Description:
alpha/beta, Nucleotidyltransferase, domain 5, 22% strand
Amino acid sequence: MTPIIDTLLQLFMFLLLGASFAAIIKLNLPEAKSAEAAEKDKPQVDIDITREGPVYLDGKLVTTKELREQIKIVHDNNPDLSVIVRSDKFVRFQEIVNVLDPLNELGITKLNIAARTETE
């Protein structure tokens, strides 16, 4: 019985620590003079594009194919879906286009690019 309890505790600790590390996505957002906060009362998803290349959908690492599939499901359920793209300012523009292209194919028209004000 003791080995089972030890195994479960180790598994619990692994999942707990893994989840806390996965939630940290560091981005150096570009600056803008007129950055505004997004409306939080409407259905929205956040896409983060890191300098190193990985793409995150609402904090979860996804491939381009998974991104398209998951956004399609959410968009089918919420046609009023708003998408916020947060990209590190040093990401190659092609990486941003690779994310925006599937959104365009799905007919998503409410798209925001995140930025920080110059005073932040």
